[in-house]
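pinned: reference chain
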Amino acid sequence: MGFFRFSAALIEWSESELNDMKRLCVHAYKNAWHLPRSTASALFIFPKTHAGKESTLPIAVLTQELLLHAKRCMRHADVSKNIMLAESNRTLDEWLCDSFIELIEEMESWMWDDATGDFWSRLAKALQQSNISVTWAEQLDSRLTSVHTTGKLSWAAATRSIEECKMRIERIGGSRLDTDSEVWGLDQTTWELMWAGEAAMRKSIPALRPARYESIFDLPRIHQRYREKVLVVILPAMRKCAMSNGEQRVRVLIAVVQGLSQKQRQLMQQYFELVDWQGLMLPSAERRQRDSLKSFARSVKVWKDWICLKKELATLGEKLPPAEFLPAKCKKQSPDPTKRDASKEKSGRRALAGGNMWDSLSCLLTL
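pinned: its structure tokens
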């Protein structure tokens, strides 16, 4: 186990290799307890809550070493940290995610061998398999934050229901080459789009990002009213949740940008027709406009309150009493109180007229 721990964080271990390591570890535990090899392995694998010994296995060692490697490399603000952050940004862009927590959720739909191409992908997959939550990511970088960005929907989160449906089919023996798609409850067009549409989306996003289409919320959309006919009905296998009836009244449009061919744009548009926007609760364009107007109105009100506060502070500075009416105790503190108070009053009024709020309040207290 020591040899495995030494290189666990740096070597790309396959799932079969980890299973072989797990088998060897269990045999070693049996030999240590002088048990025959025919003893059930569940005794060492199961947790203590299920009457097992919860012995240390290779996946636990691998997860621990990956976390320690990330901590060591990002402890100081040096070249190694910059390299790790650059690699994390490249990994998030490759998996179409906005944060490291979202990358961990995305790994639930992928097998181990498909998700271990780089360090951050291996770490996310190991954390997902071990069911470990991350609380340190937001302290390292904004894109590693554990809080989802409000008002933003990533490409991976939008198409996760389609990806999960495809993964369920592949895990039970299905593939793109199957000709009888009705066995799976899907029509032939939907069956082909699950693979061709995903490939088109991954090729199109690098062309959309330079045009400032960073997420789904940046794309244009049309909204169908409830009194009108629905745009499309999603099949039950593609729906995001059981609460969704599949009736789509929002359609996200793929914009025409430079570097995006017409064929790729049409394939991506057809692929987005399979997304359950109702289950994702994607707001319409009218609702987005109302929300933006409300936020703008709130910002205007804040500025009005700030201007009124500055005017009140300036008025208070003008109404200060002359120096000769100050208490005698204050006069004893300065040999020339008139000149000193006048300079304070002048600088205080200047700060009240053009400074920020905290400077204005401090000058007011000084006056």
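why pinned: The chain has three domains: 2-144, 155-283, 288-366. Strands lie at 221-223, 232-233, 247-248, 250-252.
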